[in-house]
């Protein structure tokens, strides 16, 4: 495996990433397992304030590791602030993590339960001094039961990535700073949900109660620059939609076709970090 050939297979998957990315064994790596009884309510955490402009969506692409939707982040069209953040973060990208079956695929785990998928929203932080990044993750569940903690099945997760544009001049610079990124996470559950107009808010649940902690990118280069915001309530996704994600190819033109059946990293050690909640 080389730095450019990382993936999710037997020989280039997460267990091997530390060979070329030593930070993989760092002190604030993501994802993690959320243990509800160990989470502390923090009354200082503010409600999230989110404004997304669907017209800022630019490109959908297959990176070989996920599908990505990239947004125009040259202006403050789509921004996130509030919550645990001290500035405004511009939306950069969202992408999805899923598994080979509907009962697993999310990167973050809640009380031992993994959702069907997890989506990430990447937002740069907006500040006159520079740029920080925020990631939003969405976990997709494969369960058909009501979204209680006890019945949640494992599934995909959506990550919505933002960067701190108030503090840093570019996404690239923000990605290397401890407060540069913010990611929103949403858990998805095994029912149907509309996915149109490339508006990430269409993937958000009604409740924006969240957990938050300091972490990292969950893919190489695994930079420890992320404020994670994980929405507690899952949203619904159908088995047919999950099957379409698994039909994406992870091979280059001219190579034997191989499908991206699974693209999630296992939970990493907490190493003394604290997880806070905006709700009791």
Automatic annotation (TrEMBL):
GO MF terms, alphabetically ordered: carbonate dehydratase activity; zinc ion binding
Cross-referenced SMART domains: Carb_anhydrase
Ranges where the Alpha-carbonic anhydrase domain occurs: 4-279
Residue ranges the record marks as coiled coil: none
Protein name, per record: Carbonic anhydrase 3
GO CC aspect terms: cytosol
Gene: CA3
Any Pfam family: Carb_anhydrase
UniProt cross-references to InterPro entries, sorted A to Z: CA_dom, CA_dom_sf, Carbonic_anhydrase_a-class
Family in the record: Belongs to the alpha-carbonic anhydrase family.
């Amino acid at each position: 495996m080389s730095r450019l050939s990382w993936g999710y297979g037997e020989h280039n998957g997460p267990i091997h990433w530390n060979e070329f990315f030593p930070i993989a064994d760092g002190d604030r790596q993501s994802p993690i397992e959320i243990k509800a009884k160990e989470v502390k309510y923090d009354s200082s955490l503010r409600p999230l304030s989110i404004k997304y402009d669907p017209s800022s969506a630019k490109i959908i692409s297959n990176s070989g590791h996920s599908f990505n939707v990239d947004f125009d982040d040259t202006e403050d069209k789509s921004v996130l602030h509030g919550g645990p953040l001290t500035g405004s973060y511009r939306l950069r990208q969202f992408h999805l993590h899923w598994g080979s079956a509907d009962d697993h695929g999310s990167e973050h785990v809640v009380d031992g339960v993994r959702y069907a998928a997890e989506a990430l929203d990447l937002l740069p932080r907006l500040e006159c001094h520079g740029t920080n990044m925020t990631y939003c993750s969405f976990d997709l569940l494969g369960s058909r039961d009501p979204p209680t903690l006890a019945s949640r099945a494992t599934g995909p997760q959506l990550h919505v990535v933002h960067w701190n544009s108030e503090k840093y001049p570019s996404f690239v610079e923000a990605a290397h700073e401890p407060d540069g990124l913010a990611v929103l996470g949403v858990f998805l559950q095994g029912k149907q949900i509309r996915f149109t107009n490339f508006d990430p808010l269409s993937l958000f649940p009604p409740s924006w109660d969240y957990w938050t902690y300091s972490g990292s990118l969950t893919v190489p280069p695994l930079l420890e620059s992320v404020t994670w915001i994980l929405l507690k309530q899952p949203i619904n996704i159908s088995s047919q939609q999950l099957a379409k994600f698994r039909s994406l190819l992870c091979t280059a033109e001219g190579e034997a076709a191989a499908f991206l059946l699974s693209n999630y990293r296992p939970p990493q050690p907490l190493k003394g970090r604290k997880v806070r909640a905006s709700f009791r």
